[in-house]
Amino acid sequence: MAILHLLLGSVALIGCMVALCQLLRSLIRRTVPSGLAQDLLIEIVSTLQLCCCTREMILLGTLGGIQPWLALTLTYLLTVLHCLTFQGATCNPCGSLEQWLRAQAPGPYIILKLAAQFVGALLSQVLMPNIWLLRLSPLHAWDKGCGSPLNMAPWQGALVEMTCALSLFLAMHFLPRVKPQYRPHVVALTITAIVYAGKESHITRSDISASLGALGHNDFSCYMTICK
């Protein structure tokens, strides 16, 4: 019952955050003309969603004591949710740089997207501590600040990030005929496998890895949303 209480509180917070960000994206689509400004605003909002959800999941994973199977289930479901709601946003530097390397977007555009991602991540650092004051979960009252779930230095974590990005890229590259409606599930399954591998190899100390909130191929949110 205690685990269920913790889980419901975190799910409620994540649901409210996703709904709010989805509303903001809809308003942006309606009020801002298509183009660079609209793309950057959606990138900010989507990165905010990603980082806020990841902060909550890191808190749940490090302090909640949930079972590994439940953590992996949440990994899968939340990744599918992000894939369905991000509306083309990349939400991490590795994914954006990949677009540039593949000549899918010009350099100046990618630089602006990177800036938008950092803005969204920084907004999550300001927003989440205030949301936790609502005490939707007992974890929010217990929290005295959480640390990185990585058992390695940041530069090593960056290498792991690139390896994860490459793994997903290869998985998607060899599945070109996957129908669009199934693609979020393929991405989520790949991410879940990466999370499981990271847990089993002791790369992370949390049942929920930093990859949890990723849109298919990143744990950028880990590096930007580590609790102070």
TrEMBL record:
Keywords for this protein: Membrane, Transmembrane, Transmembrane helix
Annotated compartments: Membrane
Q: Does the keyword Ligase apply?
A: no
Q: What is its main location?
A: membrane
User: Which GO molecular function annotations are given, in alphabetical order?
Assistant: channel activity
Superkingdom, natural source: Eukaryota
GO CC terms, sorted: cytoplasm; membrane
InterPro entries per UniProt: AQP11/12_channel, Aquaporin-like
The way it spans or sits in the membrane comes to: Multi-pass membrane protein
For this protein, the record's SUPFAM superfamilies field holds:
Aquaporin-like
Membrane-crossing residue ranges in chain numbering: 6-28, 69-89, 153-175
State the name under which the record lists this protein: Aquaporin
Q: Which organism is it from?
A: Engystomops pustulosus (Tungara frog)
